[in-house]
Amino acid sequence: MINYVYYMAKNKREYREVSMNEAKYAHRRSTVNVQFKDASGKAIADTDIKVKQTGHEFLFGCGAFDFLPATDGKEMFVDRTEKWLDLFNYGTLPFYWGQFEKKEGEPRTELLMKAAKLMREHGAIPKGHPLCWHTECADWLMEYDNKTILSKQLDRINRDVSDFKGVIDIWDVINEVVIMPVYDRYDNAITRICKDLGRVKLVKEVFDAAKAANPDAVLLINDFNLSESYRILIDGCLNAGVPISAIGIQTHQHQGYMGREKLEDILDRYSFFGLPIHFTENTLVSGKIMPPEIVDLNDYQVDEWPSTPEGEERQKKEWREMYEILFAHPLVEAVTGWDFADGAWLKAPSGLIREDGTLKPSYHELKKLIHEEWTTELIVHTDADGKAEINGYRGQYSASGNNISGSFDVKKDKNTDVCILK
Amino acid sequence: MINYVYYMAKNKREYREVSMNEAKYAHRRSTVNVQFKDASGKAIADTDIKVKQTGHEFLFGCGAFDFLPATDGKEMFVDRTEKWLDLFNYGTLPFYWGQFEKKEGEPRTELLMKAAKLMREHGAIPKGHPLCWHTECADWLMEYDNKTILSKQLDRINRDVSDFKGVIDIWDVINEVVIMPVYDRYDNAITRICKDLGRVKLVKEVFDAAKAANPDAVLLINDFNLSESYRILIDGCLNAGVPISAIGIQTHQHQGYMGREKLEDILDRYSFFGLPIHFTENTLVSGKIMPPEIVDLNDYQVDEWPSTPEGEERQKKEWREMYEILFAHPLVEAVTGWDFADGAWLKAPSGLIREDGTLKPSYHELKKLIHEEWTTELIVHTDADGKAEINGYRGQYSASGNNISGSFDVKKDKNTDVCILK
Fold first, then answer.
1. Which of A287, A370, B19, B409 has the fewest C-beta atoms lying within 10 Å of its C-beta?
2. C-alpha torsion A108→A109→A110→A111, nearest 10
């Protein structure tokens, strides 16, 4: 919770936000000395300015698959995406090759571009997921020999990363490499080439292709296997010169919340590389917990998997604890829930809204965290030069005073700014 | 078993060895056209020559720790090493830093050099084990900061690999890297620097140091963790340019023989790299099997662990099967048993001889395999130019006829040879 403390200092009043969380989340905050001016360029001196954060640097994300049908204005999905946008500023769009290009040469670039731009229009940042994966892969690839498959994989990366440059600049480049060459549930083109090239060489090829197509993009490796195998893989890739921008960590906790100790162990171990960490795919269910003996989550097939009141309370508490732990860790830059609504993957009650569109306790809880507790809102009093020092969570801000308003940013390496109110 | 088949062909007699194993082990054999001459240089034409293999290209190995006390002529150890030499051509010598240099600056180079040369004098090839390991490490290293520890580790490698060059040209450069940075049984200098550098960087540093000191040496990475983690580690190291010559695989099977299926799975998975594979440390016990719930074998501490008659029969069969599987695999170049005599590591009945020095059934079985079934012995008949074609297991050969004798080699890429009998 945020407390406003009123100081009397000399002849001027000064409002300061004092958050109980200031120390814990200090790494998320910066201080900027803003000079407020009116449209004529005159400093707005000795005035109360109301300052409110309107956007976050931190990526609060969720699966954004519903933006695809929302582009057609389908009511249910328009409603869902509005609720989505009230909460999040970052979302994952599906680029599974088997769906994206069901028939060779016919990618659904247009639909994805519309969905990505729809997100952008509402201030949300889209991520493409994934460019290379053995699952949900295009079947037609298997007609080719391995050399051709690799070449088509690299062409696909070049095409899609180039096409979406400027709209999508964050990519899960490769997904689940630890299991990739030993995956034996069914034959697929990517396991074939991974067996041939080995993991590190394939990772290098696909990252090099993505980097060439968009040198400024944030390029992720992503996995659900959080054992030492994945650490060793990343270690090998980095030493082999793979341009990994951030480490993707999946936690699909259908079998129960992992808890603080395990989460902190993951953070400790993956901090080694000093790279940003994205919690890319996270699930917490608000119903029955999946039995522990299930190894591949996809093996758990049920007719229905209802959300329960107790489950929703549990899910709410778990999401809060998990968010607090992750937001407190300096290397974490993104946390992305997986299903926005219940009943998607595995029919699980894994969403923040129910199937009927009603909001679950976890939705309200995340909204409180993101848009109240971790959002800066304060009144500053400008000095004789129209200047005031503002310390807050990094991101975009609105400012208003004397019935005029403007905007500015709080950034890490920007100590001063000018804000025009008009 | 080897069968001699007698052919009648035209006017000349020709003996040929036909082994039932010819196809299975064809990759171990080569054909060489040898011209036999007498001391004056005259071809020994139209003559029966008895040809017998005296040495193997394949490395049949065992722990050779007993050669250290044998250098002093200690009777028990002289007896043991004689039995050892009757069986093996390759042995592992201990270079554990904590033993090798108990006090900083006082390495026991002289003792190890004597032991290595003793082996060489009897035609056995020594291997040094290991140059870097978190276990059995020198305690005095922990007094230094991490930068100094690394520097001393590299100096140690440079010193020992240089000192033994020409005597020991095969090294286990680094041991058990998969567990190294997460090893938490006790603090040690190597876990500290592995945590700092990461696995791949440390592996690269130590291999580069060994390679610089002896560019022609065979340099091994070695591990007991045969999961995908080790494959990923090797993959990363090779892509990062680490000069690994051969992959070391440990199989300490105190908890029971792994069996054909698992062994072939290991061979399949580690063949990916196309590098030679050394089975560096192998244990099969001839007594009670260690309970499966033990995770770190060192936790199993018993007062005595007797060898039993049934256990010795089992051990014999398991060794034969394992040797046959490994010898049949084209990438395997070395198989090294661990304890030569019972009662060493963990007091296990893991040897080929008993504590009292008597030979166990597994000793006789390996001798039959190495020195009979996989040893070529035949009679060839030379043509008018003194030439005869010899196909046999690669290695060193003696030849005799007309009461004079000589020697030659059967090698992979040498199709012709001249052998002088005198």
1. B409
2. 60
pLDDT of residue B12: 35
What is the per-residue pLDDT for B414?
86
Check CB contact under 8 Å for A228 and B228.
no
The predicted pLDDT at position A21 comes to 60
Q: How confident is the model at residue B6 (pLDDT cuts 50, 70, 90)?
A: very low
Tell me the per-residue pLDDT of A204-221, one tens digit each, with 9 for 90 and over: 999 999 999 999 999 999
Distance (Å) from the alpha carbon of A247 to chain B's nearest alpha carbon:
16
CA distance A207 to chain B (A): 15
Nearest to B411 by CA among B156, B163, B55, B21: B55
Q: Which of B381, B371, B388 minimizes the C-alpha distance to B402? A: B381
> B271 to chain A: which residues are within 8 Å by CB?
none
Backbone angles phi and psi of B143, in degrees to 5:
-75, -15
Which one-letter amino acid corresponds to residue B230?
Y
* Share in percent of chain A as helix, strand, coil (round to 5): 35, 30, 35
Whether the CB of B198 is below 8 Å from some CB of chain A: the reply is: yes
DSSP states along B170-183: EEEEEE-TTTGGG-
The first and second tokens of residue A364, run together, are 């309200």
Sole residue written with tokens 């009927």: A356
**Could you tell me the CA-to-CA distances from A184 to A133, A135, A165, A188 in Å, in that order?**
14, 11, 35, 9
Phi, psi (rounded to 5 degrees) for A26: -55, -35
Identify residue B404 by its one-letter amino acid code: I
Chain A residue numbers touching B192 (CB-CB < 8 A): none
- Which of B229, B238, B239 is nearest residue A232 as measured by Cβ atoms? B229
Strand partners, B278: B248, B334
Burial of A395 (0-12, 13-18, 19+ CB in 10 A): buried
- Nearest CB partner across the interface for B228, out of A229, A239, A272: A229
β-pairing, A218-223 vs A170-175, is parallel
Partner B contacted by A240 (CB < 8 A): yes
Which pLDDT tens digit goes with each residue over A99-124? 999 999 999 999 999 999 999 999 99
Dist CA A11 CA B70 (whole Å): 93
| C-alpha–C-alpha distance, residues B332 and A181, integer Å | 23
Distance from CA of A179 to the nearest CA of B (A): 9
Determine contact: B228 vs chain A, CB below 8 A: yes
> What gap in Å lies between CA A77 and CA A66, rounded to an integer?
6
Q: What angle do CA B54, B57, B60 make, to 5 degrees?
A: 90
Would the pTM count as exceeding 0.80? yes
Long-range Cβ pairs for the range A75-81 (8 Å, 24+):
A76/A357, A79/A357, A80/A340, A80/A341, A80/A353, A80/A357, A81/A118
Burial (Cβ within 10 Å: 0-12, 13-18, ≥19) of residue A103:
exposed
Token digits for A174?
A: 């490769």
> What distance in Å separates the CA atoms of residue B118 and residue B112, rounded to the nearest whole number?
10
